[in-house]
Design goal:
The complex is a heterodimer of chains A (about 230) and B (about 290). With about 230 residues, chain A is mainly alpha-helical. Chain A has one domain (about 1-225): MetI-like (MetI-like fold, Orthogonal Bundle), CATH 1.10.3720. Chain A is built from nine helices and no strands. Chain A is flat, with a radius of gyration of 22 Å. Helix content of chain B is about 40%, strand content about 20%. Chain B is built from eleven helices and 13 strands. The model of chain B is unreliable at about 15-45 (pLDDT under 50). Classes of the chains: A mainly alpha (about 230), B alpha/beta (about 290). Chains A and B meet through helix 3, helix 4 and helix 8 of A and helix 1, strand 2, strand 4, helix 4 and helix 7 of B.
Chain lengths: ~230, ~290
């Protein structure tokens, strides 16, 4: 009990909280960016214009086929080394670079889930819409979209839970998220050195947060079960 | 389909090869738009621009890791330590502000070349790899590599002969790795010096080789490694010279010369020793 009221515990917790705020920031920005971008990419990969379809599918192949950690390193260091441009200095530049890498990476995964969801809606329904004189946009909005959303919630939940934990990759370019902060107490931070428990303690943050996310996504899934 | 795939693969390979070659040749690369004239003149023109570059943007970005007593944070989150204080004084002598940026140590050269930081100033041991990739200042501090073992086995490891057949954990690419390999030990390279301690404490390695300065801060009473201790100074045991710390700048940078002059004047007016006394590293600092 004494341990939980000690100064050490408080210092570590403050540091981990600061780190976890960064984790959350990265998580929500990635979701906000990747959800719409993924839909756009999925349209590209279903396009009837062959060059666009091939281009999009190549991009998706490259992004899904290489490790995210490599994409982060490349995106952050290569522009400066090639003298194309420099990221803003300081922590904000690192966060920006990591967010861009995560949004692109996750949009590609999401796009395939969207594609599955859209192509899973029976073609007959679209034809029925056409017969009724609906435009393509109307068909998408009133017939496909709702059924797609319903279908994609379980696979999306999977990716979103993975995203919670993938945020830890950002520490490769020294973004100080929660695992970086946990590790910092091994080597020394705020006058505390040689502690290993803060690193393992970060698991609590991930567990609680992914628990909340799972619960919310479960709620959404039940809400969307109106066709049964 | 086949044609397309082969084209795509060829493109990816070209891109990756280009990235590699540019990374290796760092400053004087051919595609760079900033390095203009021939090789000899080119390096000096870049050197001029590096100090000017820092002065123009008004900040010296110092690449560090959290490394007591060289660079660490006080209770208010300000960076202090022997290196941090000297970096502040150096920036002041240039007339620019100082900005500390924590980096991933494995990527220090890339951070420099990508201009995310302007120097590496974090108790960096000068070795051949560092000298090949950066412009390194005159040494300002001495260091040694020590052997870390479980305290209850300390009496078994008092000389180099005792180390035969040991598996030792080392930080990948560190001076400790070189020292262990020079002794012919089986090494387990891990990511950080702190990870080597976890190896020893978990029993997955017999011992670890890390910096003396670091061992002083990270093991013993009041840490998670109270059951670890260090026994052997590998530099003394092998009759090697001590290692030296230096500050790393971009290749061909004239900031290195500016730093050397700054350090000489800081030694001359006693401010270097004063700062060293503040952080208890006066025994290690080179005051000549």
């Amino acid at each position: 009990m004494e341990f939980f009221t000690s100064d050490t515990f408080r210092t570590v917790l403050t540091a981990l909280n600061t780190g976890f705020l960064k984790t959350l920031q990265l998580f929500f920005i990635t979701l906000l960016g990747a959800l719409p971008l993924g839909l756009i990419i999925s349209f590209g990969s279903m396009s009837r214009f062959t060059p666009l379809r091939w281009l999009t599918r190549t991009v998706v192949w490259v992004i899904r086929g290489t490790p995210l950690v490599l994409q982060i390193i490349a995106l952050f260091y290569v522009p400066g080394m090639q003298k194309w441009f420099n990221w803003p200095s300081g922590e904000s530049g690192r966060m920006l670079a990591v967010c861009v890498a995560f949004v692109i990476n996750y949009a590609c995964y999401f796009s395939e889930i969207y594609r599955g969801g859209i192509q899973g809606v029976p073609k007959g329904q679209q034809e029925a819409g056409l017969v009724l004189g609906m435009t393509k946009l109307q068909i998408f909005r009133h017939i496909t979209l709702l059924q797609m959303i319903k279908r994609i919630v379980p696979p999306m939940s999977n990716e979103i839970i993975t995203l919670v934990k993938d945020t830890s990759l950002a520490r490769v370019i020294a973004l100080q998220e929660v695992i970086w902060m946990g590790e910092s107490f091994m080597k020394g931070n705020s006058g505390i050195a040689g502690l290993t428990w803060p690193l393992f303690f970060t698991a609590v943050y991930y567990l609680v947060f992914s628990g909340i996310v799972t619960m919310l996504l479960g709620k959404l899934e039940r809400k969307l079960s109106f066709f049964q | 389909m086949k044609k397309f795939l082969s084209l795509a693969l060829a493109l990816t390979m070209c891109a990756s090869l280009a990235a590699c070659s540019n990374g290796a040749s760092s400053s004087g690369n051919t595609s760079g738009s900033e390095s203009t004239s021939g090789s000899g003149a080119g390096s000096s023109s870049q050197a001029e621009s590096d100090m000017q570059y820092v002065k123009d943007k008004g900040t010296l970005v110092v690449g560090i890791t959290n490394f007591e007593p060289m660079d660490y944070q006080d209770a208010d989150g300000n960076w202090i330590g022997f290196d941090a204080d000297m970096a502040k004084a150096f920036a002041e002598s240039l007339g620019v502000k100082v900005e500390f940026q924590e980096i991933n140590w494995d990527y220090k050269v890339m951070e420099l070349n990508a201009k995310n930081i302007d120097c590496v100033w974090n108790g960096m041991t000068i070795n051949d790899e560092v000298k090949a990739a950066m412009s390194v200042s005159d040494p300002y501090c001495l260091n040694a590599q020590v052997l870390v073992v479980p305290a209850d086995k300390a009496d078994q490891f008092q000389s180099v002969e005792d180390l035969e057949g040991l598996t030792v954990a080392v930080e990948s690419g560190s001076a400790g790795e070189d020292a262990a390999e020079a002794l012919g030990l089986t090494t387990v390279p891990v990511q950080k010096q702190s990870d080597t301690l976890m190896e020893v404490s978990a029993g997955t390695s017999d011992a670890a080789v890390i910096d003396l300065l670091m061992a002083g801060a990270m093991i013993g009473e009041g840490t998670s490694y109270a059951d670890l201790t260090y026994t052997l100074n590998l530099n003394e045991a092998q009759g090697l010279e001590s290692e030296e710390y230096g500050v790393g700048f971009r290749q061909g940078s004239d900031l290195t010369e500016a730093y050397n002059e700054f350090w000489a004047s800081a030694v001359a007016d006693g401010s270097a020793l004063e700062t060293a006394n503040t952080y208890g590293v006066q025994e290690s600092v080179i005051l000549e």
